[in-house]
Amino acid sequence: MTALRRVLAVRVGRMGDMVMLTPALRMLLAGLPWSEVHLLTSAEGRRVLRGFDPRLAAFHLYHRRFPGGLLDRGKLRRALRALSFDRVYLFESHPFYRKLVEGLAPEIHGLVPDSTTAHYSARCLEVVAPTLDRLIAPGALTLPVTEAGRAAAAAYLERHGIGATDVPVGLHLTFSESSRGPFASGRGRRHREWPLAECAELAGLLFEEGRRLGIPIRPVIDALPEERAMAEKLRESSGGRITVLSGSPDFERYKALLARLRLLITPNTGPMHVAAAVGTPVVALFSGWSPAECGPFAPPERATVLRAEDTDRPEQGLAAISAARVLDASRRWLEAAVPAPTATG
């Protein structure tokens, strides 16, 4: 293969979209060790992947929302053309992005159209693998967690009364468009939000499970400032069994916080992918989406998916998944948190 001086990867997405790209990015960086790799992405993509790998040479931002994207398109194309890319890896399926990168490089490799039954991460790997001279073993989702992030997460938890010996279990309730009101999700909010009553019941079940196992299980919610009121209402309805974490957003701290959790329980959201990428087990709640296409891209020992479609009330969406069922799916990781008996004598 002729040495490639500079290549461009393209993915303009939200947090979960960007995390699902990480196996392909790792393969690309390992398979083209002498190439300069650039990424065309969103501001959110830059936030998620800043510090991902020092060989990710530059981020080029595209604003998807009108009119910013339309106004900046010509300027962006001129800037990219001036960089003289040898190859483009297009991890977007919409024809618009094919037009956006047209003519930027002699080679453009993109997602196979209509191949939507495979997981997005696997589809991205299929784009990269045939273009490399040496075989690179595919990996899982990965995000680095810094020592500074771990220290910040430990201090954050301590400030909210959770210490090193506690067993925190994360509960995530919102999704990326929650704040946009009742029409935030095109498929309906019932497929994206688990009812607060079920979450409050689960907090009580987790508390009792901790007593049974003899470990201090602490259900926690890390709430953005705009989510604080909702989270406090849930804490009250759980009888105070949920600890609400709240502070200024800090993505490095957030990754480390998820890495500190024993388990994250969440619907199909970006935090599900971040947790998988930092090695935290996940119980993922699905309705209306196929986990085979966008579920946690993690080995079975680190993830369990519960589907509304597997209940006798699938029309209710996530409400069909009971707190008791979630607890049952969580037990293997909770039981693993029990300290081993200490040898005596």
Tag the structure with descriptive keywords.
single chain; 345 residues; Rossmann fold; 2 domains; six-stranded parallel beta sheet; five-stranded parallel beta sheet; 11 strands
Structural description of this entry:
The chain has 345 residues and is of the alpha/beta class. It folds into two domains: 6-131, 3-Layer(aba) Sandwich (Rossmann fold); 147-335, Glycogen Phosphorylase B (Rossmann fold, 3-Layer(aba) Sandwich). 38% of the residues lie in helices and 16% in strands. The protein has a six-stranded parallel β-sheet with strand order 8-7-6-9-10-11, sandwiched between helices. Helix 2 runs parallel beside helix 6. The radius of gyration is 22 Å and the shape is elongated. The protein starts with 5 loop residues before the first strand and ends in a 10-residue tail after the last helix.
The residue-averaged pLDDT reads: 91
- The tally of beta strands, per DSSP, is 11
Strand order of the largest sheet: 8-7-6-9-10-11
Instruction: Note the gap between the termini.
Output: 65 Å
The CATH superfamily label of the largest domain reads Glycogen Phosphorylase B
Number of helices: 13
Largest sheet, described in full?
A: 6 strands, parallel
Given helix and strand content, the structural type is: alpha/beta
Q: Helix amount, in percent?
A: 25-40%
CATH architecture title of the largest domain: 3-Layer(aba) Sandwich
What percentage of amino acids are in beta strands?
A: 15-25%
Could you say how many structural domains there are in total? 2
